[in-house]
Automatic annotation (TrEMBL):
Keyword Disulfide bond in record: yes
Keywords: Disulfide bond, Lipid-binding, Signal, Transport
Species name: Aegilops tauschii subsp. strangulata
Domain of life: Eukaryota
UniProt-listed GO biological process terms: lipid transport
Its job: Plant non-specific lipid-transfer proteins transfer phospholipids as well as galactolipids across membranes. May play a role in wax or cutin deposition in the cell walls of expanding epidermal cells and certain secretory tissues.
SMART domains linked to this entry: AAI
Domain Bifunctional inhibitor/plant lipid transfer protein/seed storage helical residue range list: 32-117
Protein name: Non-specific lipid-transfer protein
Lineage, opening ranks: Eukaryota, Viridiplantae, Streptophyta, Embryophyta, Tracheophyta
Length: 121
C-alpha cells in the first residue's frame, strides 16, 4: 500500500474546501434577471401608469432586499437597477427613489442614476 504524503493530503483538502466555497458563492450570486423580475411589478408605478405602488411591487422590493444581503450582491443589485432604469421609457426617477421607503425597505445607497455602486455599497 502506498504511503500518502501528509502535506499533499492537507493541500488537497484545503484546495477542495476552497473550490467548494467558491462554487457556493457563484451559485448564490444575484443576477440582473432576478433584479428585473423582482421589480417588474413596479414599472407601471414608476412610469406613471399606476397611481400607487402595488402589493406585488412591494413584495418584489422586499424580496430583492432579502436576496441582496452581501456587499457583492448589493453592488450587483445597484448596477442592475441602474441598467434597468435606463431601459425603461418614461421612468420618473423621483418615484423610483421613493419606492423602497414606501415599501418599508431601507436601502444603504441613494437611488439615483449618478450613484457610484462601488462607493456606497
Amino acid at each position: 500500500m502506498a504511503r500518502l504524503n501528509s502535506k499533499a493530503v492537507v493541500s488537497a483538502v484545503v484546495l477542495a474546501a476552497v473550490v467548494l466555497m467558491m462554487a457556493g458563492r457563484e451559485a448564490t450570486a444575484l443576477s440582473c434577471g432576478q433584479v428585473d423580475s423582482k421589480l417588474a411589478p413596479c414599472v407601471s408605478y414608476v412610469t406613471g401608469k399606476a397611481p400607487s405602488i402595488s402589493k406585488e411591487c412591494c413584495s418584489g422590493v422586499q424580496g430583492l432586499n432579502g436576496l441582496a444581503r452581501s456587499s457583492p450582491d448589493r453592488k450587483i443589485a445597484c448596477r442592475c437597477l441602474k441598467s434597468l432604469a435606463t431601459s425603461i421609457k418614461s421612468i420618473n426617477m423621483d418615484k423610483v427613489s421613493g419606492v423602497p421607503g414606501k415599501c418599508g425597505v431601507s436601502v444603504p445607497f441613494p437611488i439615483s442614476m449618478s450613484t457610484n455602486c462601488n462607493k456606497y455599497v
